[in-house]
Amino acid sequence: MTWFIVARVVFVLAIVSTAVVIRPLDGGLGPNGALGLVLAALAVVFETRLREAPAPSVIGGLIGGLVGLAIARAVGTSIFWVDASDRRLLFVQGILLLVLPYVGVVTGVQRGEWLQPARLIGLFREAGPSRRHKVLDTSVIIDGRIADVCETGFLDGTLVVPQFVLKELQSVADSPDTLKRNRGRRGLDILHKIQKMAGVDVEISDTDFTESREVDLKLIELARSLQAKIVTTDFNLNKVAQLRGVEVLNINDLANALKPVVLPGEFMKVFILKEGKEYNQGVAYLDDGTMVVVDNARKMIGRPIDVVVTSVLQTTAGKMIFGRYIESSSAVRPQPPDRDEHAKRPRPLRQV
After folding, report:
1. How many CB atoms lie within 10 A of CB 146?
2. Between the CA atoms of 202, 171, 248 and 151, what dihedral angle is there, to the nearest 10 degrees?
3. Where are the domains of the chain?
4. pLDDT at 164 over 70
5. Pairing assessment for the beta strands 201-205 and 158-162 based on DSSP bridges
6. Is it the case that residue 123 has pLDDT exceeding 80?
7. N or C: the chain end with fewer CB closer than 10 Å?
8. What pLDDT sits at residue 333?
């Protein structure tokens, strides 16, 4: 970092000294030195912002600016037959020299991902099925179930992990809060595990969208540029992405779809863990986390019982099963024989 500071100081001094020597303003050393200092400060700010931008976006911006400048120059040359002393012509030429390079720079920055090596190589390959990209969200990486899904082979295509998602994971892993720190480190371990899996293609994308500060909006823009799907467990991101026309793969929806189907009238064995909100209710949980609310089971807390399913409710948070505990009737004990009946029975004759 020291040589960065030295280089910037030398650059500022060079700009200020150039302005002082040439004196573009009519004033003395003060106004010209201030002008050089302002220009040097703007150049340093521009260099700092440019250093954070990805290389394809920078190259795309330069190419777009040069193309816009060439078009503006060509348009200005093509109207040579117009009176050069006309102020309206000078105004049009000035506007073209400002507008067309600006449009070229903005367009080149937005389409800079097309200059990535993989995209350029794909232009010279034979036409075939396009690569299907899945953009991973921070929440789905921390959740951890994405590793099991990838290991089973149900996710095809390329898993894209943006650089800004990695920064967010790192910030969570460096949090002073112990819980957040453990979650962030777990997310980094899950991502490292996915990278080591055979048959799983993981790509780290340097594409960033500096105009958007929120990570969710950056994910949506990246998915739109790659024509990819977002893999997440965030309910709010799911809704916003769908409103913007981006397809979403929600791991929670997949887990709910894989839960066993239970119909009313079926019997199941559950372990009553705690009491419910209503009177005489007990609450149990299946192995997949599904809540089972059982009537008449409050006194059976801490014991496994057999219940009959009465209804199934599907909510946005998951599936809930309602059942009823039917107390088993006590076994009928054999009653001792009546003495009167025993006396009435004929006795066997004894042989003499």
Report:
1. 26
2. 40
3. 2-115, 129-256, 267-325
4. yes
5. parallel
6. no
7. C
8. 38
Smallest CA-to-CA distance from 159 within 194, 135, 193 is with 135
Q: Which token pair is 50? A: 């440019």
> What CATH class is the domain 129-256?
alpha beta
CB 79 within 8 Å of CB 73 = no
Q: Does residue 192 or residue 258 have the better pLDDT? A: 192
Report DSSP letters for 40-56, one per residue. HHHHHHHHHHHHHS-HH
What residue has token string 């965030």?
234
CB atoms within 10 A of CB 232: 26
Q: Retrieve residue 227's tokens.
A: 């024509």
Topology adopted by domain 267-325: OB fold (Dihydrolipoamide Acetyltransferase, E2P) (2.40.50)
pLDDT greater than 50 at residue 331: no
Per-residue tokens: 142: 């921390």
The residue count for the chain: 352
Indicate the pTM of the whole model. Answer: 0.48
Q: Which of 5-14, 48-57, 197-206 has the lowest mean pLDDT?
A: 48-57
